[in-house]
TrEMBL record:
Coiled coil: none annotated. It is a lipid-anchor. It holds the Pfam family Glyco_hydro_15. It is found in: Cell membrane. Residues 35-431 form the GH15-like domain. This is Phosphorylase b kinase regulatory subunit. InterPro entries: 6-hairpin_glycosidase_sf, 6hp_glycosidase-like_sf, GH15-like, PHK_A/B_su. Pathway: Glycan biosynthesis; glycogen metabolism. GO terms for biological process: glycogen metabolic process. Belongs to the phosphorylase b kinase regulatory chain family. Its main location: membrane. It comes from Trichuris trichiura (Whipworm). One of its GO terms (cellular component) is phosphorylase kinase complex.
Length: 450
């Protein structure tokens, strides 16, 4: 099965994949070898999608072999991330009582040694959504038949991670963009993306046997139903707002649709999506949030933070991120909206960049040149933008490839979501955990929240 996506995976292995740990490290100068938890989990989603495609369309033994290698790559990355977390097990214990940023798990690690790369106070490490995304992905992959957790010690640690995230509805964190409130002063706040991803992870793990079809009651994860309900209540009160300082945020696409599917009210899903499209969508992608000064021509590169009165100068010149076209493209497939599929495919074709061998990559963001800012302010979305130097952007590239696999009918939506989270607005059927070997799969019971 030769596809553009296979070639792009080969590019990934050349540029990012560490042969020892399997983690995808950053190639950016100053951050080289840094492996962000969130980016790596999304990369795993992409590789998992490729593995499913090879499993479904293996024509020769070589294809089956490649599919197996891709599956084991997923396991390798997930286990390396688990090892990173387990090395900081004392932090998990401390955080359960202190809930202080200094006691949080780190947001990134060394792709070579799995060790920390920055100090506790040198980065906005408290990002509950990243840990929740990892746990959600662990649950989905376990349900699909992949064996990620090998021992009861690891089961106990995953249970501890559940305790680590379960109070997300009342723990201010630095959010999906790592910098806290909109002014980048490092002030943590309650973020809807963190609460939504936590709710999804708790629901996915509740009653799940981490040993899959070969487990026992000792390997089952338990979640307090009250914590799920608390997350749901706070999330419903926040949407379509992201936080106190952010009116809305394009990152909310990750919780109203793939991968979290955390919202059960269809009208609230539609309202949140419409708000994002109306307020944040541009020609090259979506702005992260209103008055986002990141990498704009008017941002002062000598400091990370802004004064509150400075935010107005970023209005209508914010950078646009193609990442969110990838989210919306996948969302259109999950909603079976043919018009939106074509619409966002057309936009993606305009923002991808061809490099050597005809490979198509997604840049991190598109920037408005300083000389065009006045014209853009007079007529929004009228000026051309240029891609910054970060390409491919691992997070966006992973979702782009996943969207291509879905579009080409190489994978089914149900295969990416064996826990049936996409049915969040209706009652879900019982989950069947798939086994890797010839044996009758064992059903696992889930409490469906109505």
């Amino acid at each position: 099965m030769k596809t553009e996506n296979e070639n792009t995976y080969a590019l990934y292995k050349t540029l990012y994949l560490d042969p020892v740990t399997g983690l995808f490290g950053s190639p950016i100068p100053g951050f080289k070898g840094h492996a962000w938890v969130r980016d790596n989990v999304y990369a795993v989603h992409c590789v998992w999608g490729l593995a499913l495609a090879y499993r479904n369309h293996a024509d020769v033994d070589a294809d089956r072999s490649t599919g197996y290698e891709l599956e084991q790559t997923c396991v390798k990355v997930m286990r390396s991330l688990l090892a990173c977390f387990m090395r900081q097990s004392k932090k998990v214990e401390n955080f359960k009582s202190s809930q202080a940023p200094k006691d949080s798990l780190h947001a990134k690690y060394s792709s070579h040694s799995l060790s920390t790369v920055v100090g506790d106070d040198d980065w906005g490490h408290l990002q509950i959504d990243a840990i929740a995304l990892y746990l959600l992905t662990l649950a989905q992959m376990t349900a699909s038949g992949l064996q990620v957790v090998f021992s009861l010690d690891e089961v106990a640690f995953v249970q501890n991670l559940v305790f680590y995230i379960e109070h997300a509805y009342r723990i201010p964190d630095f959010g999906i963009w790592e910098r806290g409130d909109k002014t980048n002063h490092g002030v943590p706040e309650l973020n809807a993306t963190s609460i939504g991803m936590t709710k999804a992870a708790l629901e996915a793990l509740n009653g799940l046997d981490l040993f899959g079809a070969f487990g026992s009651p000792n390997s089952v994860i338990h979640v307090m139903g009250d914590e799920i309900q608390e997350c749901q209540a706070v999330l419903r009160s926040l949407l379509p707002r992201e936080s106190y300082s952010k009116e809305t945020d394009a990152g909310l696409l990750s919780i109203i649709s793939y991968p979290a599917f955390a919202v059960e009210d269809l009208s609230q899903i539609n309202t949140t999506r419409a708000t994002i499209v109306d307020k944040l969508q541009g020609r090259y992608g979506c702005r992260r949030f209103l008055r986002d000064g990141y990498e704009t021509a008017k941002e002062d590169p000598r400091r990370l933070y802004y004064e509150p009165h400075e935010l107005q100068k970023f209005e209508n010149i914010e950078c646009e991120w193609p990442l969110f076209f990838c989210y919306l493209f996948i969302d259109a497939h999950f909603n079976n909206n043919q018009d939106k599929m074509k619409f966002y495919r057309n936009y993606l074709d305009k923002v991808v960049i061809e490099i050597e061998d005809g490979l198509k990559v997604i840049p991190k963001l598109y920037v408005l040149a300083e000389e065009n800012t006045d014209a853009e302010l007079k007529q929004p979305h009228s000026q051309d933008r240029y891609a910054n130097d970060t390409k491919p952007f691992l997070w966006a590239q992973s979702l782009y490839i996943l969207g291509c696999l879905i579009e080409e009918n190489l994978i089914k939506l149900a295969e990416l979501d064996p826990l049936n989270r996409r049915l969040s607005t209706e009652a879900r059927p019982d989950t069947v955990v798939q086994g890797k070997y010839e044996q009758k799969p064992r059903k696992q019971r889930y409490d469906v929240l109505v």
